Amino acid sequence: MPHIVIPDDEPAVMAPSAASAKLKTHDVRTYADRPSSAAELVARIRDADVVINIRSTSKFTADVLEKCPKLRLISIWGTGTDNVDLEAAKARGVCVTNTPGVSAVAVAEHTLALILAVAKQIVTVDRQVREGKWPRAMVPQLRGKTLGLIGTGAIGREVAKLGRAIGMRVVAWTFHPEGDTAEWIGFDDVFTRSDVVSVHVRQSSDTSAMIRREHFELMKPGAILINTARGPIVNEADLIAALATNRIAGAGLDVFDREPLPPDSPFYSLPNVVLTPHAGGITPETTEAGLALAIDNVLAFLVGRPTNVVV
Q: Active site includes 278?
């Protein structure tokens, strides 16, 4: 029987889930904490045929994969694959799967929440009221404003729907534009024209630091940036500078270069940014659906019919 390892179920999502019942008849070892190093990850999965990856903090590098010769499948809970060396996996014959689309609605809703929180200055005003003040913030209406999307995959398309629902015009750039999701425009044009720029591309060598100082300089002074994709897609130092100098009005961020945010992060001292802890896709509904799909990907692979294959 294939040996299945879940090396990083912390905080626990798989163990208490209803979906885990699908694994009851299989040989499964679950670790209730995250490996503290590459060596510890290798120690946990060295004899595994299949790994179900819960946390992106587990890095499946070429070196890790080389030390796990039995490994044939990494089933990722989630859509991001930036914690796996895909080329090394492919070269070693390790199949990698993910759970696309499961969290699209949840992340889109979180994106809209960040747009509203930043544009309406909800966090700042709430704090002032608690301090006994009665502020009269002149915050903008979003109806009639332009929402610009960078990427229109499953999440981007849902954000487009929500943007139109509150009366925003939607423009977008994506690698492969098709359909009527938005008005398709050039990459730089998204920053020039938009009142809100929202990021929805996957992290890859093509998208790392693709948004940087030159793009903030193109944005309207009253515009805001939202990132619920991956931190490294945006040059963090350039974003901090744009926020600190009020080059742009604000930002709503669910993702960062380093997670959790380090204690000395400059973001803490910026009043025009709303921060959430990479939690946009975490709802009871998406958690169960995503875990079930990650397990289904394993079961399909074991019977020779792999699904949701990345490589």
A: yes
> What distances in angstroms separate CA 133 from CA 35, 126, 137, one per listed residue?
47, 10, 12
- The runs of H, that is alpha helices, within the chain are 38-45, 62-66, 86-91, 104-119, 122-130, 154-165, 187-193, 213-218, 236-244, 284-302
pLDDT of 137 above 90: no
Domain 104-275 has CATH 3.30.1330.40: no
- Average pLDDT on 4-11 reads 97
Instruction: Give me the catalytic one of 34, 46, 213, 278.
Output: 278
Which CATH number is correct for 3-102+284-302, 3.40.50.720, 3.40.800.20, 1.20.140.160, 3.90.220.20? 3.40.50.720
Residue 259 is a catalytic residue: yes
157 is catalytic: no
d(CA 1, CA 29): 13
What global pTM score does this model have? 0.90
